[in-house]
Amino acid sequence: MKALLLFLLFPLLGFSQYTESDWEERDAWMKVANLLDLVQLKAGQKVADIGCHEGYLSVHLSKRVGAKGQVFAVDVRNDRLEKLKENLKERKIKNVEVVLGDYDNPKLPDATLDVVIILDTYHEISDYETVLRHVKKTLKAGGQLLILEKLKDRAKGKSREAHVSAHSMAPKYVKKELKKAGFKITQEVPDFGDWKRETDKQMWILVAEK
């Protein structure tokens, strides 16, 4: 019953998606190059984009890792992935593998990835403990997990459940969850700028190592 409810609600959770025409504007406030520098992502590496939506970040990752690298673009909604496939075809990108994941399993290969990125998606993951176990399993020794979320003013100081309802997340909750899952937090960026330049939505980043 819980899984069915999540399935019905998920389209509402992710209602505001970015299309091609939005990407140039998003580049200006997302600072993707700075984001990827935090994990020193480089050519030839393998990286996953969990919660890839229509592929905004996946396309950037594809350029960063180059022809000898590989990107696994994961989402639980096939309609998003179909749009991503169109974007990849238009750009003639061949180093991105599209993956239809489950809500509790991103379905990634074991001990393969250098980096996993969960961008503005962690707050939507109800079974985060299971997902973090899968992420840890898919990373190589010393592999890194980067989580970027937004902290909304109206959710500050409230419970984790209140954050989820507001499509927000406080770093204090995620730090505890990462440590419990056996990750070592190596970097914390409490203020990475404003999400969509909206001053009541502060982006933050945690980087953790397997």
Q: What is the compact description of this entry?
A:
The protein is of the alpha/beta class. It is built from 8 helices and 7 strands; from the N terminus they run αααβαβαββαβααββ.
What's the topology here?
Layout: H1 2-13, H2 23-30, H3 32-37, E1 46-50, H4 56-65, E2 70-75, H5 78-91, E3 96-100, E4 113-119, H6 128-138, E5 139-152, H7 160-165, H8 171-180, E6 184-189, E7 201-209
Parallel strand pairs: 1-2, 1-4, 2-3, 4-5
Antiparallel strand pairs: 5-7, 6-7
Keywords:
25% strand, 210 residues, disordered N terminus, 7-stranded mixed beta sheet, alpha/beta
Global Rg:
16 Å
Poorly predicted sequence stretches spanning 5 or more consecutive residues: 1-18
Strand and helix order: HHHEHEHEEHEHHEE
- Determine the N-to-C terminus distance: 33 Å
Report the sheet-strand fraction. Answer: 15-25%
Largest sheet: 7 strands, mixed
Structural class: alpha/beta
**Residue-averaged pLDDT, rounded?**
91
Helix percent reads 25-40%
Q: What is the total tally of β strands?
A: 7
Strand order within the widest beta sheet = 3-2-1-4-5-7-6
Helix segment tally: 8
Overall shape: globular
Overview of this protein structure:
This protein is an alpha/beta fold. The protein is built from eight helices and seven strands. The chain has helices spanning 2-13, 23-30, 32-37, 56-65, 78-91, 128-138, 160-165, 171-180, and strands spanning 46-50, 70-75, 96-100, 113-119, 139-152, 184-189, 201-209. A seven-stranded mixed β-sheet has the order 3-2-1-4-5-7-6. Helix 6 links the parallel strand 4 (113-119) and strand 5 (139-152). The chain starts with a helix and ends with a strand. The model is unreliable at 1-18 (pLDDT under 50).
